[in-house]
């Protein structure tokens, strides 16, 4: 019995020595790596991480992504509800189909208000509607109504911003809280903290808008449209490049972006992080630092070259 206990004891002692000398180092290393991995997961990603961005943007170029300045979910909901009071609108609840039964799908465009400026882009939209087969000059026949007030640019710092829209639309006999109306918008809010605020109450109107926030888009009711420039042709244009069974399309450029870089504020970290995709061949990304009155205060080492390339 004593011999058996001694044998078991010696076996356990030998196993422990083997584990200590040959496996201890591996276990310590595994624990160390696991701890490092856990620490990395806790802190990644951050746009100010030099190991991620050192090849195309320095930490000094980027806005800190600390969460202190982010609005709380409650604040975001309050903002959303103040802007979209009819956030539950759907075609079944905020659109009167009876107006479409007698004459079909007809669109009435409000007569132009004297003294209200209309941008080139909005003029193209209005002209396209008035020249279409759906247009009617008689509001009694209309199924859909479109304002002749330019609502494309709702940045109150813009020269194309139309003031006092709320007062004007409330005076329209056909407005009816926006029911069966369609409103177009390309830009909303202003730098640096862009919001969805259009500066007037859209009521029950359908919103055709570029750069929608997903949480504010009303499915089956609102319309997401691309952001187009004032140079976009009203009609026609060159033929497309995508031919049948031609993938990828036979086109010189795969991706093109041209716009402001935003040295600070919302959008600055994203556009800085995407700077490196520009290769000057099939991927073109051109940005300018000239934004706002004090852009030169935030000017970085890339600005002069970026501005020159942008203006070519």
Automatic annotation (TrEMBL):
Record domain Exostosin GT47: where: 104-306
Keywords (A to Z) from UniProt: Glycosyltransferase, Transferase
Record flagged with keyword Glycosyltransferase: yes
GO molecular function, one term: glycosyltransferase activity
InterPro entries in UniProt: Exostosin (IPR004263), Exostosin_GT47 (IPR040911)
GO biological process: heparan sulfate proteoglycan biosynthetic process
Family assignment from sequence similarity: Belongs to the glycosyltransferase 47 family.
Name used for this protein in its record: Exostosin-like 1 isoform B
């Amino acid at each position: 019995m004593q011999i058996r206990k001694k044998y078991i004891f010696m076996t356990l002692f030998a196993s422990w020595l083997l584990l200590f000398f040959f496996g201890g180092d591996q276990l310590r290393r595994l624990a160390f790596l696991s701890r490092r991995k856990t620490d990395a997961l806790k802190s990644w990603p951050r746009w100010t991480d030099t190991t991620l961005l050192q090849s195309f943007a320095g930490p000094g170029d980027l806005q800190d992504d600390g969460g202190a300045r982010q609005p709380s979910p409650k604040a975001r909901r309050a903002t959303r509800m103040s802007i979209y009071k009819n956030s539950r609108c759907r075609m079944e609840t905020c659109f009167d189909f009876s107006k479409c039964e007698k004459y079909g799908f007809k669109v009435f465009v409000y007569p132009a208000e004297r003294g209200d400026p209309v941008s080139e882009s909005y003029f193209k939209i209005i002209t396209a509607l008035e020249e279409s087969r759906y247009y009617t000059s008689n509001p009694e026949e209309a199924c859909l109504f479109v304002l002749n007030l330019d609502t494309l640019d709702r940045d109150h710092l813009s020269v194309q911003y139309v003031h006092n829209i709320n007062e004007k639309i409330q005076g329209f006999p056909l407005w009816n809280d926006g029911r069966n109306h369609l409103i177009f918008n390309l830009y909303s809010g202003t730098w640096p903290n862009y919001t969805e605020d259009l500066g007037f109450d859209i009521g029950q109107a359908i919103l055709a808008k570029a750069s929608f926030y997903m949480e504010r888009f009303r499915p089956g009711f609102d319309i997401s449209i691309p952001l187009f420039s004032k140079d976009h042709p009203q009609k026609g244009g060159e033929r497309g490049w995508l031919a049948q069974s031609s993938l990828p399309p036979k086109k010189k450029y795969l991706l093109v972006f041209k716009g402001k870089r935003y040295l600070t504020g919302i959008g600055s970290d994203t556009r800085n992080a995407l700077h490196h995709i520009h290769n000057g061949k099939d991927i073109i990304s051109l940005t300018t630092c000239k934004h706002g009155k004090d852009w030169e205060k935030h000017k970085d080492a890339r600005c002069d070259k970026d501005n020159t390339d942008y203006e070519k």
